[in-house]
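User: Okay, second chain of the day. Same drill as before: sequence in, structure tokens out.
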Amino acid sequence: MKGPPLKSLVKPGCKLEITARLATVGPRSQRLWGRMTAPQMICHLNDSFLGVMGDKAIELPAGFSLWPAFKWIPLYMPMKWPQGVPTRPEVDQFGGGTPPAHFESDIRDLLVSLDKFTAQPRLFQFRPHPIFRVMTDAQWMRWGYLHMDHHLRQFGA
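Assistant: Same drill. Structure tokens below.
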């Protein structure tokens, strides 16, 4: 028995769904979990895209990790990402993440990054993900959808 098709930013309908949900978030949207405000979440998402596209420095954690071998679990298992998973300091709104400026311009910046992230042909080379390391194009598009979905659900969108 086959499950529903996996959502991914490579699919125009999924990208439209994400951008429509993003449009329902405002600067005063209330979080359902976590510590970030809606403006901080927008900057976190943008920082994350910028980091993996090479436009913002993100250090890879040192040491051995099993996550690269098991990245299929968070990318393809039919489950929502858990709340409270720590992020890299460079994209952490309580660390070195970009602070919110003006909500509408921060949203525009995120949409520009999203368009660059999904553009074909690709005008950049993906940097290794800090947890999953090297990923295929399909895995990147799945990660992008899941990461945005996770944080939009955080704000009820």
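The chain is about 45% helix and 0% strand.

User: Thanks, on to the next one.
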